[in-house]
Amino acid sequence: MQKICVIGLGYIGLPTAAVFARAGFSVVGVDVNKQVVERLNKGEIIIEEVGLPEVVKEVVDSGRLRASLEPEEADAFIISVPTPIHEDCTANVDYVRSATEAVVPYLKKGDVVIVESTIPPRTMDDVVAPIIEAAGFNPKEDVAIAHCPERVLPGRILIELVENTRIVGGLTPEATTKAANVYRQIVTGDVIETEAVTAEMSKLMENTFRDVNIALANELAKISARLGVDAHKVIELANKHPRVNIHQPGPGVGGHCLAVDPYFIVEKAPEEALMIQLSRDINNSMPDFVIEQIIKLTSELKEPKIALFGLTYKGNIDDVRESPAIEIVEKVLANPRYDVRVHDPHVRDEQVPFPLVSFEEAVKGANLLVVLADHNEFKMIDKNVLLSEMETPVVFDTKNCTNLEQEEGLTVYRIGDVTGLQAIAVKPINS
Ligand SMILES: NC(=O)c1ccc[n+]([C@@H]2O[C@H](COP(=O)([O-])OP(=O)(O)OC[C@H]3O[C@@H](n4cnc5c(N)ncnc54)[C@H](O)[C@@H]3O)[C@@H](O)[C@H]2O)c1
């Protein structure tokens, strides 16, 4: 195996291309985005991922990784294009379809075609294989077609691409083994062989498991608000049971995986996937739960100044896709009563449709600071700056992540412990 063609150079495709190139493969990365291609050929990247700029620079400088707008002949093709959902929450597999069509003119017998994109069950059989068949190949004999879902954690992608267990499911056992052998050359974790549809479902159930469990924690946060209980304490104590692991509540579930993948199952089995759909609904309701608390907290102020901290769907990354924080910010911004400042040290201005300000600008004169992402920066906020700069030093931590503790002059609420917010709304300083 010498040459690999990676289609789609985003958060998954680019690190994958870089890791194969670092292992000595000749890799051509393909993207429809001209900027991605031009920057990559200069050894530069436009996404944030720990260690990736250095690895990309090394493999581009050494000539092992190049970028192109068009695929080229290769021994293996790896497709890692987006699989978003439509407005009606059904899967949009158009990118997978067009990436497969783009590869077909460069295919030859004996090649391997792997889809890494997360896809609804049966997509390999019903979407990918027919395209390859229509080009004149026997999809079960001429080409090894397989799905190898990606399960890396942003922020640790370069490590997990190599160390995680990989699931490879082909259209035939031979295709599976051939595709698995591609990964065995870069992966130190196990590479497990299965069928395509099992690989598709296993990936979807991994994220669905997490989504359903987060929904349970979020439901607990809401129940706790009604009953006057501290959900964080409840979780801590319940998790002392050796077989219980309740997840943490938060402002909602975002990102391209957890907030999307469960719908791929609901779409294919709507009558059976009841808990999965309900969990999506619960998690989707959390931004409004956060807004409700903000309204209660600021009900006694005339023109509350609100600092919103963190826009990404999880901490220490720059990815704002499907982020509940964005929904919260947009809803707060839409309320003319509020004077809003938004701060996120990981997000660039061009990523969002509203202005971003520095930490200092955001907290100056603020009545309420709402933490929406668990960036490391927010785990070590200098409380003295809040005490001296905020008009009313009140913090609402929706990720239960800050180092800030309730003390004289500083009020701290956490998502699972909002009892009595209304009764102790922030008072105007001259009241
Ligand atoms: N980001 C993650 O953490 C993660 C984790 C596991 C699985 N996944 C899955 O991996 C897949 C890719 O996700 P991502 O985060 O890398 O997406 P991304 O949006 O970061 O990158 C996708 C890239 O594909 C390019 N592209 C789109 N259509 C193309 C085409 N026809 N030909 C060539 N390039 C094309 C886009 O321009 C973009 O650069 C998705 O199915 C996603 O669900 C992502």
From TrEMBL:
Residues 307-404 form the UDP-glucose/GDP-mannose dehydrogenase C-terminal domain. It holds the Pfam family UDPG_MGDP_dh_N. GO terms for biological process: polysaccharide biosynthetic process. GO terms for molecular function: NAD binding; oxidoreductase activity, acting on the CH-CH group of donors, NAD or NADP as acceptor; oxidoreductase activity, acting on the CH-OH group of donors, NAD or NADP as acceptor. Gene3D superfamilies: NAD(P)-binding Rossmann-like Domain (3.40.50.720). SUPFAM superfamilies: 6-phosphogluconate dehydrogenase C-terminal domain-like, NAD(P)-binding Rossmann-fold domains, UDP-glucose/GDP-mannose dehydrogenase C-terminal domain. Keywords: NAD, Oxidoreductase. Coiled coil: none annotated. Belongs to the UDP-glucose/GDP-mannose dehydrogenase family. PANTHER family: UDP-N-ACETYL-D-MANNOSAMINE DEHYDROGENASE (PTHR43491). NCBIfam families: NDP-sugDHase. This is UDP-N-acetyl-D-mannosamine dehydrogenase. It comes from Pseudobacillus wudalianchiensis. The lineage of its organism: Bacteria, Bacillati, Bacillota, Bacilli, Bacillales.
